[in-house]
Amino acid sequence: MIAAPEAEATFALRMRQRRDALGISQKVLARKVSLERGWTEQATIARIETGKRGVSLADAIALAQALSCELGDLLTPVKCQACKDNPPAGYSCQTCGTSSERSTA
Fold first, then answer.
1. Tens-digit pLDDT profile for residues 32-56
2. Contact 6, 13 (CB under 8 A)
3. Residue ranges of domains in the chain, CATH in brackets
4. Which residue ranges does UniProt annotate as crossing the membrane (predicted)?
């Protein structure tokens, strides 16, 4: 089991990684979540992603839905501290060997 502070940090990291993978801005994510939860500020998303604001269970579920993933995906602990399980596009992590595909955009 992971402790609450680590869970919050993991959630923030995985949320940002998922948002980046989808290619959406904090502002777009805030708009998507506002339909469900009523807060619309991009700054709220920024505070969550930087660990300056925690989230309630209801907010976490709404964020997962807005990011088209399961809540568990946002709580999966990081295996590699070097690359945070997400090396830059087109590169492989020299520590864990995880590779990332090049962006086609």
1. 998 777 776 899 999 999 999 999 9
2. no
3. 4-74 (1.10.260.40), 77-105 (no CATH)
4. none
